[in-house]
Amino acid sequence: MTHQANQEQSALWNGRSGNAWIDNRVAIDRMFAPLARFLIDRVRETARRVPSGRLLDVGCGTGGATLAIAGALGERWQCTGVDISAPMIATARSRAAHARVPIEFLSADVQTHDFPAGQFDLVVSRLGVMFFDDPVAAFDNLRTAAKPGAWLHALAWRSPAENPFMTTAERAAVQLLPALPPREPGAPGQFGFAQRERVEAILTAGGWEDVALTPVQFECAFARADLRDYVSRLGPVGQALAGLSPPERERVADVVVQAFTPFIEGDEVRFTAACWHLAARAPA
Fold it and tell me: Pfam families annotated for this entry (predicted)?
């Protein structure tokens, strides 16, 4: 582990939230498979010009997207995944070893980690760049770690209003969980990169060039059987439910799960993910 500036996020992802993601990794990887495929298309564009190189996956979690990208690039590329969550990195290492894919996984804070300068030809992220206390410092550090002319391709959530699925649990539980904290615009977290102008300014201040944010949408799905565990353990509602007695937790979960009825189609839960595609290039 390297020194961590993001103490709140470190506590979150090295604790209950990290363990919840580990336990739900199959559902999460299925849910966000369209996002991984989008990133694979972007990195293949670079790989056609640069047949071998090094790729960094920021906020890699349990390694699902990293494994998919590594498989698409082949053995001539070396992939590295980095995440602040030690438990999720341990899971990612185990998955890579089981799949016999030689990926390096680092348990580190991207904002402060001392990466070797000019190491990476590509920097990617599937929903992992919105959590820094000082995002300018984090993107400056990533730019230093990138080779001159290297590309950055990242996906981040757009606004809560454009992602009703992701706020359904909070809206359903607000009367039952009065202490549920409200989302703070621009704060580190899921919707921290919702505002285009702010994100463009962060990337530019971090030293990246050719900055472009493009709105993209993905049709996502996961098994209906996984819905209750998903809403009961992940996100702000999942954190709040952990502090309740088992009977109270089940009562609130019943209400929250019922609120997702509009997203259920047969045996699946389906929703649209409204994201930004962040593209930028390190100075040549």
Answer: Methyltransf_25
CA–CA dist 17, 216 (Å, integer)? 27
- Is residue 82 within 8 Å of 113, Cβ to Cβ? yes
Q: Is residue 105 part of a domain?
A: yes
12: domain CATH number is 3.40.50.150
CA 17 to chain centre: 13
What range does the domain containing 112 cover? 7-162+182-221+273-282
Question: Is there a domain that residue 143 lies in?
Answer: yes
Count CB neighbours of 131 within 10 A: 24
Average confidence (pLDDT) per 10 residues, the chain, 284 residues = 71 91 95 98 91 96 97 95 97 97 96 96 98 97 98 97 96 89 88 97 98 98 96 91 91 96 98 98 96
Cβ contacts of 7 within 8 Å, gap of 6 or more:
none
